[in-house]
Amino acid sequence: MQLRNSHTRWGVIAKGFHWIIALAVAAMLALGWWAHSLPYSALKVDVFWVHKSLGILVLITMVLRLGWRLVNPAPPLPTDLKAWERAAAHLTHYGLYLLLLAMPVSGWVINSAANFPLTVFGWFDVPAIAPPDDDLKELASTVHWVLAWSIIAVVALHVAAALKHHFLLKDDVLRRMLPFARLGGKANSE
Amino acid sequence: MSYRWLIALAACLLAAPGLSQATEWTIDHAGSRLGFEATQSGAAFDGEFEEFSAVMRFDPENLDQALFDVTVDVTSFDSSSSDRDSTVAGKEWFWFKRFPEARFVTTEFRALGGDRYEAVGDLTIKGIGRQIVLPFAWIIDGDQATMQGDVTLNRTDFKVGEGDWAKGKTVGLQVDVKVRLALKRS
């Protein structure tokens, strides 16, 4: 078990960040859609509260994750990738980082513009980042919705690419991010 | 009727206000606020009732004659949140259509020492009357005065927030009412 990334695989910390965020994103999409579909009620407010609390934690985790990524270089991509595949991989990864930062921030703006107070699971209070403003709330809600679909689209691409690496190219790109997998694909890393 | 009768009658009329009435005060709305603080999902928010009017009769030397008769336009509920402000209009909350006004009428005053007093009175919200005790400070400065009172209410005593809202998990049951009045002698 290695905490830091190596030349051939992701370290425990990077894997932890990846899979925690993956689970959180799935939970957030489900909670968000459920809350949105409910009629106005105490339950709706409660479900949104869990959604908002988790969202702030996702934002904090993403900031830590990017910090870790900056001080701890990623294992290189396989050397036999074509230029466009490299470009697509980088674009997808950086796009996801950006989306996963913008998504909680847009939610935070909605909550602030609605002038709802926020405490993360009752552990700590989160200040407002925007003044009460209905127009801003509508705008941020639209952005939040567009970002949700963007995340779904980019994650679909990300998963498809991982599966392609694993089953078609038979390399270690997926395996090196899996929690307990052994490397054993084609030795095509640099 | 003799002149003597008329003079006696006039003397009574002139003397009456000074004898039997405590001083009447007018609220200066620019310097006054009927605010509240409560919690939502465990975090505090605040707001105010923008419209209210009151008969304020108060003289520290004559508490027997004191009277607060306050009428609050509950539809002026403003917590700077259109979601919340529209929610409380509903039947489960204040039910604006049926109960647009709340009222507080005092029945008794007690001196607590210094500038501190308490008013016992009936508070009616959403058609439900409850006796409450409002402790307050009343500070007179010439023809002006300030009144500061705080009281904590349980909103379910007045059925404000019914059904699932009455559980207090989503929106706290306790509401701190904060009265800040600037007054002028009428």
Keywords:
heterodimer; A: 190 residues; mainly alpha; two-stranded antiparallel sheet; 4 helices; elongated; B: 186 residues; mainly beta; eight-stranded antiparallel barrel; 2 helices; 11 strands
List the helices and strands and how they pair.
The complex is a heterodimer of chains A (190) and B (186).
Chain A: H1 12-37, H2 42-71, H3 83-113, E1 118-120, E2 124-126, H4 134-168
Antiparallel strand pairs in A: 1-2
Chain B: H1 3-20, E1 24-27, E2 33-40, E3 43-49, E4 52-57, E5 67-73, E6 77-78, H2 82-87, E7 101-113, E8 116-125, E9 128-141, E10 144-154, E11 174-185
Antiparallel strand pairs in B: 1-4, 1-11, 2-3, 2-11, 3-6, 4-5, 5-7, 7-8, 8-9, 9-10, 10-11
Give a description of the structure:
- The complex is a heterodimer of chains A (190) and B (186).
- Chain A is mainly alpha-helical and 190 residues long.
- Chain A has a two-stranded antiparallel ribbon with strand order 1-2.
- Chain A is elongated, with a radius of gyration of 19 Å.
- Chain B is mostly beta strands and 186 residues long.
- In chain B, strand 8 and strand 9 form a beta hairpin.
- The longest helix of chain B is centred in the N-terminal third of the chain and has 18 residues.
- The interface between A and B is medium-sized, with 17 and 21 residues.
